[in-house]
Amino acid sequence: MYFDPYREERRIVPTLIFINIVVFIIQQIFSDFFIYYFSLIPLFVTKKFFLWQFFTHMFLHGNFFHLFFNMFSLFIFGINLESIWGSKKFLSYYIVSGLGGGILHYIINPYSPIPSIGASGAIYGVLLAYGLTFPESILYINFFIPVKAKYAVLIFGVMELVFGITGTASGIAHFAHLGGLLSGLLYLKLERFIYKKVSSIKKTKIYRNLEDMENDRKRERLNELLDKISLSGYNSLTEKEKFELDDLSRWFRDKE
Fold first, then answer.
1. Residue 202: band (very low, low, confident or very high) from pLDDT cuts 50, 70, 90
2. Residues 174 and 215 both lie in one domain
3. Above 70 in pLDDT, residue 5?
4. How many domains, in total, are found in the chain?
5. 121, 70 in Cβ contact below 8 A?
6. What's the CATH code of the domain at 139?
7. Is 249 a catalytic residue?
8. Which of 27, 47, 150, 208 is most deeply buried (CB count within 10 A of its CB)?
């Protein structure tokens, strides 16, 4: 796929990658300060109300490889989604997934003093959206195992749930990954629900407008027939007009 970072519909992914790289560089200089204030430390959220950490932890990373693989995944999956969705929707989805990952991690560990950092929650949300949007595309797990995207999402979701419950691969915020998946799914389901409701309301309004137009047309025709009766009497109506008058009168009576 040809990548042009200046195309409007693809401007958010390269911007997010740039921000993460810049933050990572600054983080190396002010490491302790950044970890204390901007990583997600559940204990600090509980005791000190550092609520902004749900957002800021998404832009910190533990080391170069942590940053590289997250940004590589963001580029591979995100660039396609942003091309279809547009920048605004992609950005809102990315942030919601990242927040959801942090929130679930906090719910599971509300008094943990261990910092959690990384965009992985948001990336897992992006992976979910990619799997739902391009279900038949092939992903290579560990770079050599081909799996359809729709199955890869399911595999990763089950793995994170199992690892989170069993404590396997400790040191990784598995529930943050799972939270990114779940919040991304909730976002898409809620968006679809709202879209259906709005579409239904619009259709209802259109139907009502058409119904009003039909009412006006019939009212105008009824008035024409009544005017003719006023001028020339009922017998001046043709048989067709008499039937029409009867139908229109009955129709308006039923509407009352």
1. low
2. no
3. no
4. 2
5. no
6. 1.20.1540.10
7. no
8. 27
Can 105 be counted among the known catalytic residues?
Answer: no
Q: How many CA atoms lie within 13 A of 79 on its CB side?
A: 14
Closest CA to 15 of 6, 3, 24: 6
Which of 174, 82, 67 lies closest to 126, judged by CA?
82
pTM: 0.73
Last residue of a domain, one of 167, 184, 199: 199
Note the pLDDT of residue 27: 95
- Tell which phi-psi region holds residue 169, choosing left (phi > 0), alpha (psi between -120 and 50) or beta: left
Q: Residue 28: its pLDDT value, please?
A: 94
Lowest mean pLDDT among 59-73, 83-97, 137-151, 242-256: 242-256
Residue 87, classed as helix, strand or coil, is: helix
Q: List the one residue out of 15, 52, 10, 8 whose CA is nearest residue 34.
A: 52
The per-residue pLDDT for 4 is 44
Per the structure block, which two tokens stand in for 54? 């749900």
CB 90 within 8 A of CB 81: yes
Say which of 112, 120, 174, 183 is annotated catalytic.
Answer: 120
Instruction: Name the residue range of residue 92's domain.
Output: 8-199
- 1 assigned to some structural domain: no
Average pLDDT score, the chain: 82
> Quick one: what percent of the chain has pLDDT higher than 70?
80
Q: Which of 57, 105, 174, 177 is catalytic?
A: 177
Best mean pLDDT range from 103-112, 135-144, 227-236 = 103-112
Mapping DSSP to helix (H, G, I), strand (E, B) and coil, where does residue 135 land?
A: coil
